[in-house]
Amino acid sequence: MKNLNRVGPMLVMGAATLYFLVPIWWLVVAASKTRSQFSSTDPLWFADFALIDNLKELLAYRDGVFLRWMLNSVVYTGGAALLGTLLAAMCGYALAKYRFWGREAIFNVILSGVLVPATALALPLFLIFSQFEATNTFWSVFLPSLVNPFGVYLARIYATASVPDELLEAARLDGSGEIRTFFTVSSKLMFPALVTIFLFHFVAVWNNFLLPLIMLGEEKLFPVTLGLYTWNTQVNQIPELRMLVLTGALVSIVPLVIAFLLLQRFWRNGLGSGAIK
Amino acid sequence: MRMRSLSVVLASALALGACSSTDSSEGGDPAAAGNCAPSTGNVTLTYTTWIPGIDKVVKLWNDKNPNIQVKVQTGPNGNGGTYANFFNQIKAGNTPDLGHIEYDALPSFRVQDGLANLAGCGEVTAAKDQFVDWTWGQVTFGEQDSVYGVPQDAGPMALFYRKDLFEKNNIPVPTTWAEYAAAAEKVKAAGGYITNFSQSDINQFAGLSWQAGGRWFANDGAKWTVNLQDEGTTKVADYWQGLIDKKLVSSVPPWTTEWDNAYNKGNAWTWVSAVWGANSIISGAPDTKGKWAVAPMPQWTAGDAKAGNWGGSATAVFKNSKHPYEAAKFALWLNTSEEALTALNSEAQLYPATKAGAKLPALTEGVEFYGGQKIYDVFATASTQVAADFVWGPTMTSTYATASDGFKSAVSGSGTLLDALKTTQTKTVENLKSQSIPVAE
Amino acid sequence: MKANKKALLFFILPFGLLFAAFYLAPIGYAIKQSLYQVERKGTFGKAQEVFGGLAQYQRVFTDGPFWESIGRVLLFGVVQVPVMLGLALALALLLDSGLVKGRRFFRLAFFVPYAIPGVVAAIMWGFLYSPNLSPFTAVTSAADLLSADLVLWSMANVVTWVYVGYNMLIIYSSLLAIPQEVYEAAKIDGAGALRTAWSIKIPLVMPAIVLTTVFSIIGTLQLLAEPAVFRTFSSAVSSTYTPNLTVYSTSSIPNFNLAAAFSVVLAMATCLLSFAFLKLTQRGGDK
């Protein structure tokens, strides 16, 4: 009876796993094929194993520009997510723990930032950066990526839930300054939430390609999503790029999967924090 | 205190906005040819293009011209984002010096007042005779004292066909469109499609209309006229609608792997395409090596010799450039010198817009993939048969988008190509009006 | 709690300044742009921006394709959001039920698609849907997944594929946060697994579900990458297929003022819907 009870759920889980992983398996297989075999052999099984050749070609193409893109992506996303998480955490924390005039108004304005379509922001941002002759620079993509209103929302909710007022009072009585208390006490209590915010932020920046598309002309500054998109628009002219796009797509998801694996311990508990009220 | 600092930032940002809009409304008489005086000292030019391998071509220039260095920037192809970027940069006043712009997009850049008029550069106007007539018309819009770019490449059209299949099934190679339709029936009977009707490539349809005498746009200096339903265009639309209705053509979305497959597996037997299509077949349908040949485009009236054009682009100098003389000089070298044309052709298979360019060694040899046929001879002839008075409109992106939306529904059975053209006509006029571009109704 | 001004500024100012510069300023600029229109004389006349009042908004409200695209994403949302969240909830409950072995593996397997950027996911699925190249020829030969009738749902599948795992994790983590005592009580009452899930777990994770719903609604209204990529291999996806695509294609005409008006209206519509949904669920929760 007990075993029977488990068959159903395991079947559901198995089916779901297939649904989620088969496309990725397909990508792995596709990236391992030569261009002629890609369209002529079984899409879900290996033909002549050309992954190494494809990788070599990918890394050699235009003096290894792909590697540069990967590196850029890591810097844009890693840097923006780290710094952005810190900024959002500080702001959310202050909004949660301190009473001051205009608190709710500020919070609501920030929260409605989540609702603004990316297309509405990107073009005006370009024009503003142009005023400072700062388009087509690292900063034109990096600075706007720092802002994550959703992170503030999460930080506020989690700070309310996990940092007790009494603790702050006690720290204050001990003579610890507010800022020091934040870094030594509160941030530790909020740590799982910070990892969650970091992860969300990381993925959001990693995914964003509209802003770089509009801001950047210098190929050396591209993040990998924009690079792949650019290649994809050139497939008509240069069909050899198709295999590079597929191989590149595969390579581009590897860092995130690794990040997920490494941070697993944190996100599996942290992700729910936004919803605990 | 905090709120005040916020509002200061906001207010200054709004002020910035105000600045930028006043910027865009100054400037001189648009008709006057720009100043074209050489700059003193060393000059660095920026050049945005998506031509593959362009760095190698530009290096040839940089090595020989230490005083005029060119820096290449790349991005997605024009409609994939680079044009949108150019427009943003024109608005912001920070365009590169030079840009790669296809012929059909040139008028929209001129309407945004983004292009430098090179008619003041003596070297440019002197080069006129080096270019195939109609390509010069594309950059001057047929006006006196105006040159808004240096023609780079051209896309004269011809008929690619599966020689082996046509011979095997005893189908004569069509020389007129009537014969082409007759051949379509026989091809269908033999289990194939004569071609794939490219629903989203309005440029191909434009090329077909161009050949048939369609003229989509005209401007008399005071007003634009939109003519998407003129006699020539209607003839072409009716013709293809007939083939679609009889299911004699397939309708796979172009430039997909599926579309490659349709050619690679012999489902589609011909392609009325431009000169650069030769390489699309080589790379998209590698299994058909040696089985293709090229013939002139079918004619509407037997004995005529008219061709259409599909694609082609110019190297334009942006108005914002501080070094129009040097930029024009580079653009001329890039598009007329034998070394640059040879390099552009070997790196990116560009087909030159100059008369001399058609005689490049690579363009006079037989091509192995096409059974050794000297296919470029056919295109060189076609290039001289393209009418010079075809004018593009100032909002082609949206015209294409509307037409392609309509063509897509037509091939999936709702509406006809003519309906699509009718909608496109109305939408295009609306669009011009919404940008307050004068248009005759 | 009262704070000293200095600490408060230290905490809020860095984010506040960046937010003002990179959110408020662009929005203000877009609103201003939407109130202007261009004027020019002659076919290649000089363009001049003049105040146009609500002229652009008048265009927005009479623009058929734009409102069709809003209708399209609403239809998309009404179907896709419940399916995706239902699936996420079911998988989360199963993971939490104790009936499943290898939880760590499943959790990760379901979450991996979230690592794939929208552009790349859309390119991948484009191949998987293609009649000739798909591994699922049994499906693709029976129905053209890229045709006008089905392509919306093919895209819905891409979005679902990417986001189920992410939503599942949000719900699952809040399930983990439910104190054990709650279950003890249920066990004493003799409630079975299904019953526990229905009347204890789901109500307790309701806030997580509401949160994920709001974000899914926002995401739906802002669909851009998927339709933009699908345009290249489906004939049914037009340049005005989703509202965000309309904004982008209008601004690349270029008609900046109209594009700005579109995006202001879109942001307001998003606001309206999200708040309406929140209000609705809050009222439900009070009962």
UniProtKB/TrEMBL annotation, chain C:
Bilayer topology: Multi-pass membrane protein
Any Pfam family: BPD_transp_1
Keyword ATP-binding: no
Major subcellular site: membrane
Spans through the membrane: 73-96, 108-130, 150-172, 204-225, 258-278
PROSITE patterns: ABC_TM1
Domain ABC transmembrane type-1: 70-277
Intracellular or extracellular location(s): Cell membrane
Stretches of the chain forming a coiled coil according to its record: none
Keywords per UniProt: Cell membrane, Membrane, Transmembrane, Transmembrane helix, Transport
One Gene Ontology cellular component: plasma membrane
One GO process term, biological-process aspect: transmembrane transport
Family according to the record: Belongs to the binding-protein-dependent transport system permease family.
The protein, known as: ABC transporter permease
Organism whose genome encodes this protein: Actinoplanes utahensis
